Amino acid sequence: MLSINITTLGCPKNQVDSEFMSGLISENINYRIEKNSQKADIIIINTCGFIEDAREESVDTILQAGQYKKEGQCSHLIVTGCLTQRYKEEIYDLIPEIDAVLGAGQYEKIAEVIESVVHNERLNLVGDPSFSYTSNQPRRLQEAHYAYVKIAEGCNNRCSYCVIPDIRGPVVSRSVEDIVQEVKNLAANNVREIIIVAQDITQYGIDLYGEPALVELLGKLNTVEDIEWIRLLYSYPERISQELIDIIRDSDKICSYLDLPIQHSSTAIRKRMNRRGTTGQILNLIKKLREEISDIVLRTSLIVGFPGESEDDFQNLYDFVKKARFDRLGVFKYSREEGTPAAEMKNQIHEDKKEERLNRIMDLQREISLSKNQKRLGQKLEVLIDEVNDDYSAGRTRYDAPEIDNQIIINDNSPQVGEMLMCKIVEAYEYDLIGERLK
After folding, report:
1. Which of 38, 221, 243, 390 has the most CB within a 10 Å radius?
2. DSSP class per residue in 58-77
């Protein structure tokens, strides 16, 4: 029996793809999934190629796996994902340790690719980037109690800094009926939380139905029994509708949580980014969300050092963060990506300046995050347990997404992973809370 490790890099959308590859592999009695890459006969690396840091991590991981081929148990190496979709010839030609390069839309071929490389064939299979799976395909979850549900692939936004439309293609949505069936399948397997993902979930359905269909989808998902939480990731602020606000506010299952990838507040920079909306419009949306959904938690991601970002533009961003007081916030330095309009823009910003601006925003956000967390002191919150160790357990509230947001640390190792329990918040730090289990 061959042991196969799948190493996943990048975003939750890649995790979904890896879980479907794992499902297909697990159907073959001659294969077994191995968590430790150093103990695997075959290593599959699902790469990210979005920005420079992600590419470097992907290449380093590939080269490390190449060393396992020379010195360890690994006999074959397969590379797939966004990096291969973007650099299909370069990856295949420059890294001879790779036995097969598989495109981002070719995951359903993983079993036959494994058979081919085992018989010493070297393959380069990179075609159409869009892979739209269906609910009847096998899937092996990385976590038993929560699951990401990818409702669409690709993106139509064409932001000037972003290569995703070139890597993943235009929006390709799954049908409402198929997504609902998948969520029913997950619920039947004791999944408590589903996390809706796409490059931009507010674009969902425009290719199938001629208009956005996210609200319709959420209405159907809201009726699926045994799902406790429905979380929404990556909702572009330009398309947040009143109907979406209403369904979040009125649903017990849909978490009062939105991830709004704003990227920048300066109207001038947003225009150069090919993003719609002004500073004032974004602030008005944030105000509206907080007025209509009283307990909503807002996350955003920002880019500093975009070409032409002046001191005034950065000060606009800094003041915006201070005024908006996001509950969760991530900052990235602009990455100059070949083939994008922004890469050809004048007035590229020096790396040192980008680093300085990133640090200033994060210093400000730490203060905001600590202040907001301290307001949780004494509150009694429902916590979904993600992890249990010898001395403690850790989980999340409905206001926190896995891996990127706050954890609740509980000095009690008796809960089970996937259990929901009530906790009282007794200590608060910048990015974590200490909870006391209520009997």
Report:
1. 221
2. HHHHHHHHHHHHHHSS--EE
